[in-house]
Design goal:
By secondary structure, the protein is an alpha/beta fold. Helices cover 28% and strands 21% of the residues.
Amino acid sequence: MPLITVDGLKPDPFVTLADDAALPEESGAIVSLARFRKDREALLSRNAPIGVRLKAEESPEQLGEDVHRLSVVALEFPKFRDGRAFSWARQLRTRLGFAGEVRAVGDFLYDQIAHQRRVGFDAWEITEGFSETQFRRALGEITNVYQPSADGRKTIRDLRVSSPT
């Protein structure tokens, strides 16, 4: 699938692997949490970036201190109405201090992209035909926000309190 980041469309430097697939020689790889646990030492000792794809029911806390050794954490949206990945992204950024790429994969909607960005996502696996123009529009559609989030943007309440009357 095509990959888009806040910098635009780009080739995906990672290969997402099935649990029984061989590791690529030098390119980055994204593996399941189960495979990461099983092959942890071999994966972390490679001279290539590694990422983990978490299912909606898998908390990033399960990565432990290894989270800081990862280049990417891909968070799965099994259905657009399953919002657990929003919480996981925010947790990665705020509680766990993860500085790598947080990637949205699966079934998410155009309308969710702006909030995904606010909670910490910075890359999206998109469907064919989804343009960079649509992506930019999705990011900019919401100008004021109600919820505090990982991006530190002032909420409507904060703006009202700081506004002179």
